[in-house]
Amino acid sequence: MDFSLSDEQRMILGTVREFVHKELLPLEADIQRAELEGRHFPDRSTLRQLQGTARKAGLWGLLTPEEYGGANLGFLMTALITMETARALVPFTYGGSGDNILYQCTPAQRERYLLPTIEGERQSCFALTEPDTGSDATNIKMPAVREGDEWVLNGQKVFITNGCEADFAIVFAVTDRSKGHKGGVTAFLVDRAMGWSSRRIETMGSWGPAELHFDNVRVPDENVLGEVGEGVKLAMAWIGHPIGDYQAIQWMLADSAVEIEEVGWLVLSAAWRADQSGDARHAISMAKLAGAEMIWRVADRVLQIHGGTGYTKELPIERVMRDVRVYRIYEGTDEIQRRSIARNLLERNARIGSWA
After folding, report:
1. Is 355 domain-assigned?
2. pTM, to two decimals
3. Residues with catalytic function
4. Which of 230, 96, 225 is nearest to 170 (CA)?
């Protein structure tokens, strides 16, 4: 691998650093203030202003083909630019791009959806996930029923990034249930003006996905993206499977169970020693250290297992993560506990494996 950069690439990264320093870093206080006030920042207007400033500096369409006005910088440069941009805590994405799937547009759709999206005049969202399916296009349930030269959509999509901001959605729906995912799922370009609505899902962080609701939304046949029944191919989906059958998930559950059991015995041991001798500080330090670190690891695994749902405020998992993090700080930090344990061992006030 050769990561040496040309003079032009170095100049681009210098431009990015200047943009981050002048435009993004000064907004970090606004981010913190908005979070305390329950607002989301930057809003769409501010984001578009920032993207416009970046565009004037040549930072537009990082991976977009040049024929569509993009810079087409490649994946390495895009990764380096993303790393530089991440130095600021401001959620920011460079403009001039569109979902890859939009490049399957017909010439008419290209004018109405792809080009305006690249120009930043329109915003899309990728509406695949449903409450019981995850990101699995092979198992979606939302139907689209043909009526004349229109399709009628009814159902719900969840955890849709940009769902509240988008003015059109790329929606995957079942058009022929008898064919299953092989020929039975179709992608549609559905304008918000056609009648769908959205609701923001509150999460523990700045990512604010949405629920999309479709109640007899009528979509003209000309808004089919690609071919009828070819939606799964467009989505590049994978075969769904209960995650509990995967070894990775099973190991998370097993590790968590073992660690909870271990800490339980440490706590009981410390309590027993306190009853017996009145001085159980060494055992208490070990129980506190092990317990505080264990609950953070377990909570993190549980959130990972639940995916996007665990990250939202509709389940208590994200609250648990916020609450238990302080366990490693109060009543003696992890570092204080380790110092105490090590000191007791070095001064021979305690022995490893001392059960009496």
Report:
1. no
2. 0.70
3. 331
4. 225
